[in-house]
Amino acid sequence: MQAEGQGHLRYGSALVAEVDAIRDVLSACQQGGFARVMMESDSLMAIQMVNGERLVDAGSTV
């Protein structure tokens, strides 16, 4: 899967888009029967969120 460069904004921030894309890919991997996957991202905050090391409250502007 890869990001699409379309002209409209679906997300309020790049972080939200990144985490949503990671979630979608991990879900597809799980549905495909993959038990172990390696994920790479240039967003440390997104990786920390996926790993449960960082929480963002619903009112945050990130």
Automatic annotation (TrEMBL):
It comes from the Eukaryota. Residues 12-54 form the RNase H type-1 domain. One of its GO terms (molecular function) is nucleic acid binding. This is RNase H type-1 domain-containing protein. It comes from Prunus yedoensis var. nudiflora. The lineage of its organism: Eukaryota, Viridiplantae, Streptophyta, Embryophyta, Tracheophyta.
